[in-house]
Amino acid sequence: MAKATDDAAQTTCEWTVSGMDCASCATKIKDAVGRLPGVSGVELGVMSERLKVTLDEGVTPRTKVEGTVKALGFGIDARVSKAANRPDGEGSCGHDHGEDDHDHGHNHSHDHSPAKAADAGHGSPGHMHDDPADRGKRWWQTAKGRLVIGTALLLGLAYAAELLLPEGIGAWAFVAACLIGLAPVARRAFAALRMGQPFTIESLMTVAAIGALFINAAEEAAIVVFLFAVGEVLEGVAANKARDGIRALAGLVPRSAMLEVDGQAREVPAESLSIGQIVLVRPGDRVPADGEIVEGISGVDDSPVTGESVPVTKGPGDAVFAGSINAEAALRIRVAKAAEDNTISRIIRLVEEAEEARAPTERFIDRFSRWYMPAICTVAALVVLVPPLGFGAAWDTWVYRGLALLLIGCPCALVISVPASIASALSTGARRGLLMKGGAVIEAAAHVQQVAFDKTGTLTHGRPVITDIVPLGDETEASALAVAAAVEAGSSHPLAQAVLARAAGMGITALAATGAKAIIGKGVEAVVAGTPAWVTSPRHAVEAGALDAAGAARATALEAEGKTVAVVFREGRTLGLIALRDEPRADAADAMRQLKAMGVGAVILTGDNPRTAAAIANSLGMEFRAEMLPEDKLREIRAMAAKGGVMMIGDGINDAPALKQASVGVAMGSGTDVALETADAAILRDRVTDVPATLRLARATMVNIRQNVTLALGLKAVFLVTSVLGLTGLWIAILADTGATVLVTLNALRLLRFNPDREA
To answer: What CATH code is carried by the domain that includes residue 46?
Structure first.
């Protein structure tokens, strides 16, 4: 493949490709487009219908890419440019300056080697692929539907001719019906052949139908063409049903917003909103952008975004998400994120990109299908040639059986079995605030045997409050709190926020501080009023010689009550102890019960002291490891992983090493950038019970995949044998092929109705 030498000439272009019914359709497009000079980084998702390429337009123009896709029988349409909110030329393109990877550390491998041309599967050429304008129409209004109706009419006329016209004319009517219905299939088969893709269902259909005509099986040939068209419609309907969940997400954000300008509200497109603008959201309206409430108090229904069914009362300072519903009173909201970066857009982008992170099972199926199709063609050729040449059998009989084998051999159902299930699971999870980044994550989650939880903000609310301030020596509560607030100023850590909130509540002004920095796993230090000051754990304070035996005993007593203790001290002087408590989430105990019922172990990994950790762990019936630095958590995760799959639940920042080391790293957070973009999965509702729900969804998906693979291979095996033995013919062969594809797709669609919250 030619590679552009001038990086400035590289552009990243995106299109919407319609008409893909299975994973191998995407494979054929990726292979054909990837062969073009000046093209690299081809990404294409069946369910998202998104084609993304890195293109050197000086070598290959965008129109060449579009022409290649259209020649394969698919529809291609410009994808709306996020930045400009309009189609950008033939496709949405922008210069690639290396900043638009959206990789986030994932290792997506895109194989565009020539070997991909031999990928078996439902070859795209010959499909009556729908046009984007067909979306939302009834099946009979689409291009595929019109082909079914046309072939049905031709078949009906052929039967009428056979009954009403002189003998012999009816046979020619079936020949005509076959050839007319086969013409578009053959045209696309030849287009695929020119692109180096000989093993497609369209090629096999063309060979089988024409072969049947030569052995005087015109009636069966016409029936096969008709059944093929019916199968295409059914596959298209099933595939579009699977995409509905993703398409529904895009419809959550309103198209317009009430923008305030000089005290007056006027309606503008929601996509045109800029950060910092103020919008008015009336009762019953959807929030048009991620933002922060600046005026008003109302119940906000976040269920479209997080799946949380109970409206939450929100007021000034609270964050709201695009797509949420304002249930009660008018709100004025300051826009915090542009349209392309709001929570809904990021979820859609993650679901789209998740298709590239394929499950190991799916990769195995792809490798298997590469040699399966050529092998079947070889077997079919042997069936045709060996009995007549070696044993003097009738040519007509064995040619017929060989043609039936060709139709049976297409592994359409097999290659769609895994991605259809994965797409349905991703859609189901996204609707409930459970995001998993692709099939690889789902498969890993299904094999999890242990779950490790960070404590603060995960098992607890992450909003600790100060319960005790114990001044030491000649200090006062106010002096200790003033220094602590100075050290913690500017920090977003929950403990810091609790200190600052208490200082503000007591009317204490924080002292001036500079040079604040975190001591990883121990505390914070800063220069306050010209001298160093620290807020650390009792353990670190003892090691630093800042806490005497009496102070340590007092800290131990507070910790025994399940509180977290921080020591405030300067050089040579201890100011006091600050005790805080963060209560467990209401559903944490139920989540642990569910995990235990599923045979999954649970442990707390926390940097907090052992007594506080024990108080939380004992109330939840869990094991715990306390006073752990980030490297300690990493080491513990490695040890757990040696015993089986392990899932780590954390906040996505402090626990980043452990999250990456775990089989599945899960970030909890209501739509934060970290929750959506750091870990392998994210739980948006801040519910601990969503952890077992995620595992249930992953396990149900793998069961569904195994059912699909068994169904696809089982039907193939049965009909391969019956075709060789002459028990089934051509029309049964094509019915078995398309029927199996439809069955596995419909089985995968059952996951759209799966409720992961329901215990088995």
So the answer is: 3.30.70.100
Pick the more confident residue, 386 or 650.
386
Structure pTM?
0.65
d(CA 702, CA 237): 24
pLDDT band at 366 (very low <50, low <70, confident <90, very high): low
For helices 412-431 and 218-250, the axis angle rounded to 10 degrees is 20
Q: Is residue 409 part of a domain?
A: no
pLDDT digits (tens, 9 = 90+) for 500-544: 999 999 998 888 888 888 787 788 999 998 899 999 989 899 988
The residue out of 315, 341, 367 marking a domain boundary is 341
Q: What is the dihedral of CA 183, 185, 189, 192, to 10 degrees?
A: 120
**Rounded to 5 degrees, what are φ and ψ at 157?**
-65, -35
**C-alpha closest to that of 466 among 425, 487, 494:** 494
Which active-site residues does the annotation give? 454
Which of 581, 599, 625 marks a domain boundary? 581
Question: How far are the Cα atoms of 132, 271, 283, 567 from residue 331, in angstroms, in the given order?
Answer: 38, 19, 8, 42
Identify whether 418 is part of a domain: no
Contact between 49 and 57 (Cβ < 8 Å): no
For 324, half-sphere exposure in the C-beta direction (CA atoms, 13 angstrom radius) is 32
**Could you give the count of Cα atoms lying within 13 Å of 46 in the half-sphere of its Cβ?**
31
DSSP for 192-261 reads HHHTT----HHHHHHHHHHHHHHTT-HHHHHHHHHHHHHHHHHHHHHHHHHHHHHHHHHTTS-SEEEEEE
How far apart (Å, rounded) are the C-alpha atoms in residues 634 and 607?
A: 12
Say if 55 falls within a structural domain: yes
pLDDT of residue 130: 44
Question: What CATH number does residue 275 fall under?
Answer: 2.70.150.10
The answer as to whether 1 is a domain residue is: no
Q: How far apart are CA 461 and CA 309, in angstroms?
A: 19
CA-nearest of 444, 429, 439, 448 to 754 is 429
Say if residue 608 is exposed, middle or buried (CB neighbours under 10 Å; 0-12, 13-18, 19+): buried
Q: Which domain holds residue 42?
A: 7-133
Place of tokens 């695009």: 322
Q: What 3-state class would DSSP assign to 575?
A: strand
Task: Supply the CATH number for residue 533's domain.
Answer: 3.40.1110.10
**Number of other residues whose CB lies within 10 A of the CB of residue 465:** 12
Specify whether the CB–CB gap between 46 and 25 falls below 8 A: yes
- B/e letters for 139-156, b = 16+ CB within 10 Å, e = fewer, are beebbbbbbbebbeebbe
3-state helix, strand, coil in the chain (%, to 5): 50, 20, 30
pLDDT > 70: percent of the chain: 81
* Residue 357 pLDDT grade (very low, low, confident, very high; cuts 50, 70, 90): low
What is residue 504's three-state secondary structure?
helix
Domain count, the chain: 3
